[in-house]
Amino acid sequence: MVKIAPFPEKRQEVLDILLSMKGPTQAEVGCLNCCIFEEYGDDPAIVYVELWRTLTEMHRHMRSSLYSRILEAMELSCREPEVYFYEVVGTSGMELIEQVRMPEGTKFNSGEKKLIQ
């Protein structure tokens, strides 16, 4: 994840760079998703997120000429960009919401989608 706070006059240029990367990045082997978000308010920023199946595939992408565009966009930030790499060890979906929101003492059998009293 990269969070860029561009100079106001450079905001569209940063968006154009990142948008030009989105399709080619998503077409790469191992890319699960690529997203661009805009934050507004007192501290506006642009957040760029890539999700990769494996570290090897992400590292290959980071060595590519395509990735140099991210570095180019980061240069247009008015302060040091925030950069984070997360490694996910597991995921949950609706079953976690259902489990957490159930009354205490109630169990949920996710295989059969029913409550167990």
Question: Can you tell me about this structure?
Answer:
The protein is of the alpha+beta class. It has one domain (2-83): Alpha-Beta Plaits (2-Layer Sandwich), CATH 3.30.70.100. It is 33% helix and 24% strand. The chain has helices spanning 11-26, 55-62, 68-74, 94-101, and strands at 2-4, 31-39, 45-52, 82-83, 107-109, 114-116. Helix 1 packs antiparallel against helix 3. The radius of gyration is 19 Å and the shape is globular.
| Distance between the ends | 42 Å
* Low-confidence sequence ranges: none
Mean pLDDT across every amino acid position: 90
Individual helix count = 4
Q: SSE order in H/E notation?
A: EHEEHHEHEE
Give the number of domains: 1
Biggest beta sheet attributes: 4 strands, antiparallel
Q: Provide the β-strand percentage band.
A: 15-25%
Helicity, in percent?
A: 25-40%
* Helix/strand class: alpha+beta
The CATH topology comes to Alpha-Beta Plaits
Per DSSP E runs of 2 or more residues, the count of β-strands stands at 6
Morphology call: globular
The radius of gyration computed from the alpha-carbon positions, rounded to a whole number of angstroms, is: 19 Å
At CATH level 2, the architecture is: 2-Layer Sandwich
Major sheet: arrangement of strands: 2-3-1-4
Give the class-level CATH name: Alpha Beta
